[in-house]
Design a protein that fits this description.
With about 475 residues, this protein is of the alpha+beta class. The protein folds into three domains: about 130 residues, no CATH class; about 80 residues, no CATH class; about 200 residues, no CATH class. The protein has 13 helices and five strands. Strand 3 and strand 4 form a beta hairpin.
Amino acid sequence: MKTFKTLFTALSVLTLSSGLHAQSLNDAQREADTRLQTSVQSLADLRAQVREEKLPLARELTALQETVRELAREAERAQRLADNSQVDLDSLRESVRLRRDEQVYVGNLLAEYGRAVDARLEPSEIPLLRERLTRVLAMDIEDTDVDPADRMAAHLDLIGLGMERTRDLLGGKVIPGRGVGRDGSVRPGKFVHIGPMVLFAADGGEFAGLAQRGSTDEAAILPVGRGAFDSGIRNLATSGAGVIPLDPTLGNALALAEIEETFLEHIAKGGVWIFPILGFAAVSFFVGLFKAFELFTMPKARPKSWSTIFALLSEGKRQEALSEANQVPGPAGKILSEGIRHFDADPELIEEIQYEVVMEAKPKIMRLLPMISITAAVAPLLGLLGTVTGMINTFKMIQVFGTGDARQLSSGISEALITTEFGLIVAIPSLILYAFLSRTAKGYIADLDKLSVSFINGVKKLRQQQVSKTAA
Protein backbone atom coordinates (compact mmCIF):
# COMPACT_ATOMS: atom_id res chain seq x y z
CA MET A 1 0.00 0.00 0.00
CA LYS A 2 2.83 2.26 0.85
CA THR A 3 4.58 1.40 -2.42
CA PHE A 4 1.47 2.22 -4.44
CA LYS A 5 1.31 5.68 -2.87
CA THR A 6 4.91 6.37 -3.73
CA LEU A 7 4.44 5.34 -7.35
CA PHE A 8 1.32 7.52 -7.67
CA THR A 9 3.20 10.50 -6.31
CA ALA A 10 6.07 10.08 -8.80
CA LEU A 11 3.67 9.77 -11.71
CA SER A 12 1.89 12.96 -10.70
CA VAL A 13 5.18 14.90 -10.57
CA LEU A 14 6.21 13.61 -14.00
CA THR A 15 2.92 14.64 -15.57
CA LEU A 16 3.21 18.14 -14.12
CA SER A 17 6.80 18.52 -15.41
CA SER A 18 5.85 17.45 -18.95
CA GLY A 19 3.15 20.06 -19.10
CA LEU A 20 5.50 22.81 -18.03
CA HIS A 21 8.12 21.75 -20.55
CA ALA A 22 5.66 21.75 -23.44
CA GLN A 23 4.64 25.30 -22.56
CA SER A 24 8.35 26.45 -22.59
CA LEU A 25 8.95 24.91 -26.05
CA ASN A 26 6.01 26.76 -27.51
CA ASP A 27 7.30 30.05 -26.16
CA ALA A 28 10.74 29.41 -27.57
CA GLN A 29 9.31 28.52 -30.97
CA ARG A 30 7.35 31.74 -31.11
CA GLU A 31 10.42 33.79 -30.12
CA ALA A 32 12.56 32.03 -32.75
CA ASP A 33 10.00 32.76 -35.45
CA THR A 34 9.96 36.39 -34.46
CA ARG A 35 13.77 36.65 -34.67
CA LEU A 36 13.82 34.85 -37.99
CA GLN A 37 11.35 37.26 -39.50
CA THR A 38 13.39 40.16 -38.15
CA SER A 39 16.63 38.73 -39.63
CA VAL A 40 14.99 38.06 -42.99
CA GLN A 41 13.74 41.64 -43.08
CA SER A 42 17.23 42.91 -42.17
CA LEU A 43 18.78 40.76 -44.88
CA ALA A 44 16.31 42.11 -47.43
CA ASP A 45 17.08 45.66 -46.34
CA LEU A 46 20.83 44.98 -46.51
CA ARG A 47 20.52 43.47 -49.99
CA ALA A 48 18.61 46.48 -51.13
CA GLN A 49 21.33 48.75 -49.69
CA VAL A 50 24.03 46.66 -51.41
CA ARG A 51 22.20 46.92 -54.72
CA GLU A 52 22.02 50.67 -54.30
CA GLU A 53 25.75 51.08 -53.37
CA LYS A 54 27.26 48.44 -55.74
CA LEU A 55 27.19 50.49 -58.94
CA PRO A 56 28.95 53.60 -57.50
CA LEU A 57 31.55 51.36 -55.89
CA ALA A 58 32.09 49.47 -59.15
CA ARG A 59 32.56 52.77 -60.94
CA GLU A 60 34.99 53.96 -58.28
CA LEU A 61 36.91 50.61 -58.47
CA THR A 62 37.13 50.93 -62.26
CA ALA A 63 38.46 54.48 -61.89
CA LEU A 64 41.02 53.38 -59.31
CA GLN A 65 42.17 50.47 -61.50
CA GLU A 66 42.58 52.85 -64.42
CA THR A 67 44.58 55.15 -62.16
CA VAL A 68 46.80 52.21 -61.09
CA ARG A 69 47.37 51.24 -64.73
CA GLU A 70 48.31 54.81 -65.57
CA LEU A 71 50.68 55.00 -62.64
CA ALA A 72 52.22 51.66 -63.71
CA ARG A 73 52.74 53.03 -67.22
CA GLU A 74 54.32 56.16 -65.77
CA ALA A 75 56.55 54.05 -63.52
CA GLU A 76 57.59 51.96 -66.53
CA ARG A 77 58.38 55.10 -68.51
CA ALA A 78 60.34 56.47 -65.57
CA GLN A 79 62.28 53.19 -65.27
CA ARG A 80 63.08 53.26 -68.97
CA LEU A 81 64.28 56.83 -68.67
CA ALA A 82 66.40 55.88 -65.65
CA ASP A 83 67.85 52.91 -67.51
CA ASN A 84 68.59 55.04 -70.53
CA SER A 85 70.16 57.65 -68.29
CA GLN A 86 72.32 54.98 -66.63
CA VAL A 87 73.39 53.67 -70.02
CA ASP A 88 74.24 57.18 -71.16
CA LEU A 89 76.13 57.78 -67.93
CA ASP A 90 78.11 54.54 -68.35
CA SER A 91 78.81 55.48 -71.94
CA LEU A 92 80.03 58.89 -70.85
CA ARG A 93 82.19 57.32 -68.16
CA GLU A 94 83.68 54.90 -70.69
CA SER A 95 84.27 57.76 -73.09
CA VAL A 96 85.96 59.75 -70.33
CA ARG A 97 88.13 56.75 -69.47
CA LEU A 98 89.11 56.24 -73.10
CA ARG A 99 89.96 59.92 -73.46
CA ARG A 100 91.99 59.71 -70.27
CA ASP A 101 93.88 56.70 -71.59
CA GLU A 102 94.50 58.50 -74.86
CA GLN A 103 95.75 61.50 -72.93
CA VAL A 104 98.10 59.32 -70.90
CA TYR A 105 99.30 57.55 -74.06
CA VAL A 106 99.91 60.81 -75.90
CA GLY A 107 101.58 62.25 -72.82
CA ASN A 108 103.90 59.26 -72.58
CA LEU A 109 104.74 59.54 -76.28
CA LEU A 110 105.52 63.22 -75.90
CA ALA A 111 107.60 62.54 -72.76
CA GLU A 112 109.55 59.88 -74.66
CA TYR A 113 109.97 62.31 -77.54
CA GLY A 114 111.23 64.93 -75.11
CA ARG A 115 113.78 62.50 -73.65
CA ALA A 116 114.91 61.57 -77.16
CA VAL A 117 115.33 65.24 -78.06
CA ASP A 118 117.21 65.83 -74.83
CA ALA A 119 119.54 62.91 -75.59
CA ARG A 120 120.20 64.26 -79.11
CA LEU A 121 120.85 67.84 -78.09
CA GLU A 122 124.14 69.17 -79.31
CA PRO A 123 126.29 70.90 -76.68
CA SER A 124 125.62 74.27 -78.32
CA GLU A 125 121.84 73.74 -77.96
CA ILE A 126 121.88 72.74 -74.29
CA PRO A 127 121.90 76.30 -72.85
CA LEU A 128 119.01 77.27 -75.16
CA LEU A 129 116.71 74.28 -74.92
CA ARG A 130 117.56 72.30 -71.78
CA GLU A 131 115.43 74.46 -69.46
CA ARG A 132 112.31 74.11 -71.64
CA LEU A 133 112.81 70.38 -71.97
CA THR A 134 113.35 69.97 -68.25
CA ARG A 135 110.08 71.79 -67.48
CA VAL A 136 108.14 69.47 -69.77
CA LEU A 137 109.83 66.28 -68.59
CA ALA A 138 109.22 67.23 -64.96
CA MET A 139 105.43 66.97 -65.47
CA ASP A 140 104.45 63.44 -64.70
CA ILE A 141 101.41 62.37 -66.69
CA GLU A 142 100.08 60.48 -63.65
CA ASP A 143 100.44 63.46 -61.30
CA THR A 144 96.89 64.62 -60.51
CA ASP A 145 98.14 67.82 -58.86
CA VAL A 146 99.24 69.26 -62.21
CA ASP A 147 96.62 71.27 -64.03
CA PRO A 148 95.72 69.47 -67.29
CA ALA A 149 95.76 72.82 -69.08
CA ASP A 150 99.34 73.47 -67.89
CA ARG A 151 100.37 69.97 -68.93
CA MET A 152 98.79 70.44 -72.36
CA ALA A 153 100.51 73.80 -72.74
CA ALA A 154 103.85 72.23 -71.84
CA HIS A 155 103.32 69.45 -74.38
CA LEU A 156 102.41 71.98 -77.07
CA ASP A 157 105.56 73.90 -76.17
CA LEU A 158 107.54 70.67 -76.58
CA ILE A 159 106.06 70.08 -80.04
CA GLY A 160 106.81 73.69 -80.99
CA LEU A 161 110.36 73.30 -79.68
CA GLY A 162 110.91 70.22 -81.81
CA MET A 163 109.55 71.94 -84.91
CA GLU A 164 111.69 75.02 -84.30
CA ARG A 165 114.78 72.88 -83.80
CA THR A 166 114.07 70.94 -87.00
CA ARG A 167 113.55 74.16 -88.97
CA ASP A 168 116.75 75.69 -87.59
CA LEU A 169 118.78 72.57 -88.38
CA LEU A 170 117.45 72.34 -91.93
CA GLY A 171 118.02 76.01 -92.65
CA GLY A 172 121.40 76.27 -90.91
CA LYS A 173 121.95 78.09 -87.64
CA VAL A 174 124.90 79.79 -85.92
CA ILE A 175 124.99 79.55 -82.12
CA PRO A 176 127.70 81.07 -79.90
CA GLY A 177 129.24 78.72 -77.37
CA ARG A 178 132.43 77.08 -76.13
CA GLY A 179 134.37 74.14 -77.49
CA VAL A 180 137.08 71.88 -76.09
CA GLY A 181 140.13 71.29 -78.28
CA ARG A 182 142.22 68.13 -78.54
CA ASP A 183 144.67 69.59 -75.98
CA GLY A 184 141.86 70.13 -73.45
CA SER A 185 141.72 73.92 -73.81
CA VAL A 186 138.26 75.54 -73.74
CA ARG A 187 137.71 78.42 -76.15
CA PRO A 188 134.65 80.52 -77.03
CA GLY A 189 133.50 80.48 -80.61
CA LYS A 190 130.57 79.77 -82.91
CA PHE A 191 128.73 76.56 -83.68
CA VAL A 192 127.33 76.11 -87.19
CA HIS A 193 124.43 73.64 -87.47
CA ILE A 194 123.92 72.19 -90.94
CA GLY A 195 121.43 69.34 -90.72
CA PRO A 196 122.96 66.55 -88.64
CA MET A 197 126.45 68.09 -88.85
CA VAL A 198 127.74 70.61 -86.30
CA LEU A 199 130.95 72.57 -86.95
CA PHE A 200 132.83 74.85 -84.57
CA ALA A 201 135.31 77.65 -85.07
CA ALA A 202 137.06 79.28 -82.13
CA ASP A 203 137.00 83.08 -82.07
CA GLY A 204 140.76 83.36 -81.75
CA GLY A 205 141.37 80.91 -84.58
CA GLU A 206 143.09 78.37 -82.28
CA PHE A 207 141.17 75.43 -83.68
CA ALA A 208 138.18 74.46 -85.78
CA GLY A 209 136.52 71.22 -86.69
CA LEU A 210 133.61 68.90 -86.13
CA ALA A 211 131.75 69.30 -82.81
CA GLN A 212 130.72 66.17 -80.95
CA ARG A 213 129.11 65.63 -77.59
CA GLY A 214 131.58 64.37 -75.04
CA SER A 215 131.20 62.99 -71.55
CA THR A 216 130.18 66.47 -70.31
CA ASP A 217 127.96 69.19 -71.74
CA GLU A 218 131.00 70.79 -73.35
CA ALA A 219 131.52 70.00 -77.05
CA ALA A 220 134.62 68.09 -78.07
CA ILE A 221 136.13 69.51 -81.27
CA LEU A 222 137.65 67.04 -83.72
CA PRO A 223 139.95 68.50 -86.38
CA VAL A 224 138.99 67.60 -89.95
CA GLY A 225 141.61 67.04 -92.64
CA ARG A 226 144.50 68.17 -90.43
CA GLY A 227 143.51 71.83 -90.65
CA ALA A 228 142.88 71.93 -94.40
CA PHE A 229 139.26 72.96 -93.84
CA ASP A 230 139.83 75.22 -90.80
CA SER A 231 139.68 78.42 -92.81
CA GLY A 232 136.52 77.34 -94.59
CA ILE A 233 134.82 76.53 -91.27
CA ARG A 234 135.88 79.91 -89.85
CA ASN A 235 134.53 81.73 -92.90
CA LEU A 236 131.26 79.83 -92.65
CA ALA A 237 130.91 80.73 -88.96
CA THR A 238 131.64 84.43 -89.54
CA SER A 239 130.30 85.27 -92.98
CA GLY A 240 127.97 82.35 -93.72
CA ALA A 241 129.97 81.10 -96.74
CA GLY A 242 132.93 78.77 -96.92
CA VAL A 243 134.27 75.47 -98.19
CA ILE A 244 133.54 72.79 -95.61
CA PRO A 245 134.10 69.03 -95.54
CA LEU A 246 131.20 66.75 -96.43
CA ASP A 247 130.94 63.49 -94.53
CA PRO A 248 128.50 61.10 -96.27
CA THR A 249 128.53 58.86 -93.20
CA LEU A 250 127.04 61.69 -91.09
CA GLY A 251 129.99 61.66 -88.73
CA ASN A 252 130.14 57.91 -88.28
CA ALA A 253 133.54 57.61 -89.95
CA LEU A 254 135.05 60.23 -87.68
CA ALA A 255 133.32 58.69 -84.69
CA LEU A 256 134.80 55.29 -85.53
CA ALA A 257 138.22 56.86 -85.98
CA GLU A 258 137.82 58.61 -82.66
CA ILE A 259 137.05 55.43 -80.73
CA GLU A 260 140.03 53.56 -82.17
CA GLU A 261 142.41 52.62 -79.39
CA THR A 262 145.77 51.04 -78.92
CA PHE A 263 146.29 47.63 -77.37
CA LEU A 264 147.38 49.14 -74.07
CA GLU A 265 144.34 51.45 -74.00
CA HIS A 266 142.12 48.44 -74.67
CA ILE A 267 143.73 46.60 -71.76
CA ALA A 268 143.36 49.60 -69.46
CA LYS A 269 139.57 49.57 -70.00
CA GLY A 270 139.33 46.08 -68.54
CA GLY A 271 139.51 47.29 -64.97
CA VAL A 272 141.26 45.64 -62.06
CA TRP A 273 140.44 42.04 -63.06
CA ILE A 274 142.42 42.29 -66.30
CA PHE A 275 145.71 42.18 -64.37
CA PRO A 276 145.21 38.70 -62.80
CA ILE A 277 144.20 37.41 -66.22
CA LEU A 278 147.35 38.84 -67.80
CA GLY A 279 149.39 37.45 -64.89
CA PHE A 280 148.05 33.95 -65.51
CA ALA A 281 148.69 34.43 -69.22
CA ALA A 282 152.34 35.33 -68.58
CA VAL A 283 152.79 32.35 -66.25
CA SER A 284 151.20 29.99 -68.75
CA PHE A 285 153.32 31.37 -71.61
CA PHE A 286 156.67 31.06 -69.84
CA VAL A 287 155.80 27.67 -68.33
CA GLY A 288 154.79 26.48 -71.79
CA LEU A 289 158.08 27.65 -73.30
CA PHE A 290 160.06 26.01 -70.51
CA LYS A 291 158.20 22.70 -70.72
CA ALA A 292 158.40 22.63 -74.52
CA PHE A 293 162.15 23.15 -74.32
CA GLU A 294 162.47 20.57 -71.55
CA LEU A 295 160.38 17.89 -73.27
CA PHE A 296 161.98 18.28 -76.69
CA THR A 297 165.52 18.24 -75.24
CA MET A 298 165.01 15.20 -72.98
CA PRO A 299 167.48 12.45 -74.04
CA LYS A 300 166.21 9.20 -75.46
CA ALA A 301 167.84 5.82 -75.86
CA ARG A 302 169.26 5.47 -79.37
CA PRO A 303 168.73 2.15 -81.17
CA LYS A 304 172.51 1.83 -81.63
CA SER A 305 173.13 1.97 -77.89
CA TRP A 306 170.33 -0.50 -77.28
CA SER A 307 171.78 -3.03 -79.77
CA THR A 308 175.30 -2.59 -78.37
CA ILE A 309 174.10 -3.25 -74.80
CA PHE A 310 172.31 -6.46 -75.74
CA ALA A 311 175.27 -7.64 -77.82
CA LEU A 312 177.51 -7.23 -74.78
CA LEU A 313 174.98 -8.98 -72.52
CA SER A 314 174.72 -11.89 -74.92
CA GLU A 315 178.53 -12.25 -74.79
CA GLY A 316 178.46 -12.16 -71.00
CA LYS A 317 180.18 -8.81 -70.77
CA ARG A 318 177.88 -7.35 -68.14
CA GLN A 319 180.28 -4.70 -66.88
CA GLU A 320 180.90 -3.32 -70.35
CA ALA A 321 177.14 -3.30 -70.95
CA LEU A 322 176.65 -1.40 -67.67
CA SER A 323 179.26 1.16 -68.76
CA GLU A 324 177.49 1.56 -72.09
CA ALA A 325 174.15 2.02 -70.27
CA ASN A 326 175.62 4.66 -67.96
CA GLN A 327 176.58 6.67 -71.03
CA VAL A 328 172.93 6.90 -72.04
CA PRO A 329 171.62 10.17 -70.46
CA GLY A 330 168.27 10.68 -68.79
CA PRO A 331 165.73 8.21 -67.41
CA ALA A 332 166.34 5.79 -70.27
CA GLY A 333 169.96 5.24 -69.18
CA LYS A 334 168.85 4.69 -65.58
CA ILE A 335 166.26 2.11 -66.69
CA LEU A 336 168.93 0.18 -68.63
CA SER A 337 171.46 0.44 -65.79
CA GLU A 338 169.00 -0.88 -63.18
CA GLY A 339 168.02 -3.69 -65.51
CA ILE A 340 171.67 -4.72 -66.07
CA ARG A 341 172.47 -4.57 -62.33
CA HIS A 342 169.60 -6.97 -61.60
CA PHE A 343 170.09 -9.04 -64.72
CA ASP A 344 170.18 -12.29 -62.77
CA ALA A 345 166.85 -11.62 -60.97
CA ASP A 346 163.45 -12.79 -62.13
CA PRO A 347 162.00 -10.82 -65.07
CA GLU A 348 159.05 -9.78 -62.91
CA LEU A 349 161.41 -8.24 -60.34
CA ILE A 350 163.39 -6.48 -63.06
CA GLU A 351 160.16 -5.13 -64.44
CA GLU A 352 159.12 -3.79 -61.01
CA ILE A 353 162.51 -2.13 -60.51
CA GLN A 354 162.37 -0.45 -63.90
CA TYR A 355 158.76 0.60 -63.21
CA GLU A 356 159.98 2.37 -60.07
CA VAL A 357 162.47 4.27 -62.22
CA VAL A 358 159.65 5.30 -64.59
CA MET A 359 157.45 6.40 -61.66
CA GLU A 360 160.36 8.39 -60.25
CA ALA A 361 160.88 10.17 -63.56
CA LYS A 362 157.17 10.81 -64.21
CA PRO A 363 156.69 13.77 -61.77
CA LYS A 364 159.66 15.56 -63.29
CA ILE A 365 158.30 15.02 -66.79
CA MET A 366 154.77 16.18 -65.86
CA ARG A 367 155.79 19.03 -63.55
CA LEU A 368 154.40 22.55 -64.14
CA LEU A 369 151.84 21.26 -66.67
CA PRO A 370 148.96 21.64 -64.14
CA MET A 371 149.79 25.36 -64.00
CA ILE A 372 148.85 25.67 -67.67
CA SER A 373 145.66 23.68 -67.07
CA ILE A 374 144.76 25.93 -64.13
CA THR A 375 145.28 28.99 -66.32
CA ALA A 376 142.93 27.56 -68.96
CA ALA A 377 140.25 27.01 -66.29
CA VAL A 378 140.71 30.18 -64.20
CA ALA A 379 141.09 32.78 -66.97
CA PRO A 380 137.45 32.54 -68.23
CA LEU A 381 136.17 32.62 -64.65
CA LEU A 382 138.16 35.77 -63.92
CA GLY A 383 136.84 37.25 -67.16
CA LEU A 384 133.27 36.43 -66.13
CA LEU A 385 133.87 37.91 -62.70
CA GLY A 386 135.15 41.11 -64.29
CA THR A 387 132.11 41.25 -66.56
CA VAL A 388 129.69 40.78 -63.67
CA THR A 389 131.47 43.48 -61.67
CA GLY A 390 131.40 45.83 -64.65
CA MET A 391 127.69 45.20 -65.27
CA ILE A 392 126.93 45.90 -61.61
CA ASN A 393 128.75 49.23 -61.90
CA THR A 394 126.86 49.98 -65.13
CA PHE A 395 123.50 49.33 -63.46
CA LYS A 396 124.54 51.58 -60.60
CA MET A 397 125.21 54.33 -63.14
CA ILE A 398 121.77 53.69 -64.67
CA GLN A 399 120.20 53.98 -61.22
CA VAL A 400 121.92 57.33 -60.61
CA PHE A 401 121.98 58.94 -64.08
CA GLY A 402 119.20 57.07 -65.90
CA THR A 403 119.27 55.73 -69.45
CA GLY A 404 119.32 59.02 -71.31
CA ASP A 405 122.82 58.60 -72.78
CA ALA A 406 122.91 55.28 -74.62
CA ARG A 407 126.51 55.84 -75.73
CA GLN A 408 127.70 56.03 -72.16
CA LEU A 409 125.86 52.81 -71.27
CA SER A 410 127.21 50.97 -74.32
CA SER A 411 130.71 52.12 -73.42
CA GLY A 412 130.33 50.76 -69.89
CA ILE A 413 128.96 47.45 -71.14
CA SER A 414 131.76 47.07 -73.70
CA GLU A 415 134.34 47.75 -71.00
CA ALA A 416 132.71 45.12 -68.81
CA LEU A 417 133.02 42.56 -71.60
CA ILE A 418 136.74 43.20 -72.13
CA THR A 419 137.63 40.92 -69.20
CA THR A 420 135.63 38.07 -70.72
CA GLU A 421 137.37 38.70 -74.04
CA PHE A 422 140.82 38.48 -72.52
CA GLY A 423 139.79 35.52 -70.37
CA LEU A 424 138.90 33.57 -73.49
CA ILE A 425 141.98 34.83 -75.35
CA VAL A 426 144.15 33.46 -72.54
CA ALA A 427 142.16 30.26 -71.90
CA ILE A 428 141.94 28.91 -75.46
CA PRO A 429 145.70 28.96 -76.25
CA SER A 430 146.45 27.70 -72.74
CA LEU A 431 144.10 24.77 -73.22
CA ILE A 432 145.66 23.91 -76.60
CA LEU A 433 149.17 24.28 -75.17
CA TYR A 434 148.35 22.05 -72.22
CA ALA A 435 146.87 19.38 -74.49
CA PHE A 436 149.96 19.43 -76.74
CA LEU A 437 152.55 19.38 -73.94
CA SER A 438 150.60 16.82 -71.94
CA ARG A 439 150.41 14.58 -75.01
CA THR A 440 154.16 14.98 -75.57
CA ALA A 441 154.96 14.20 -71.92
CA LYS A 442 152.73 11.13 -71.90
CA GLY A 443 154.36 10.00 -75.14
CA TYR A 444 157.81 10.28 -73.53
CA ILE A 445 156.61 8.25 -70.54
CA ALA A 446 155.15 5.68 -72.93
CA ASP A 447 158.56 5.42 -74.62
CA LEU A 448 160.14 4.70 -71.23
CA ASP A 449 157.55 1.99 -70.58
CA LYS A 450 158.25 0.57 -74.02
CA LEU A 451 161.99 0.58 -73.30
CA SER A 452 161.38 -1.33 -70.05
CA VAL A 453 159.20 -3.91 -71.78
CA SER A 454 161.77 -4.31 -74.56
CA PHE A 455 164.53 -4.87 -72.01
CA ILE A 456 162.46 -7.55 -70.20
CA ASN A 457 161.71 -9.25 -73.50
CA GLY A 458 165.42 -9.16 -74.38
CA VAL A 459 166.36 -10.68 -71.03
CA LYS A 460 163.87 -13.51 -71.53
CA LYS A 461 165.21 -14.13 -75.03
CA LEU A 462 168.82 -14.25 -73.80
CA ARG A 463 167.91 -16.70 -71.06
CA GLN A 464 166.10 -18.93 -73.54
CA GLN A 465 169.19 -18.90 -75.73
CA GLN A 466 171.36 -19.81 -72.74
CA VAL A 467 169.00 -22.67 -71.83
CA SER A 468 169.12 -23.93 -75.42
CA LYS A 469 172.94 -23.88 -75.44
CA THR A 470 173.10 -25.69 -72.11
CA ALA A 471 170.66 -28.35 -73.30
CA ALA A 472 172.67 -28.80 -76.49
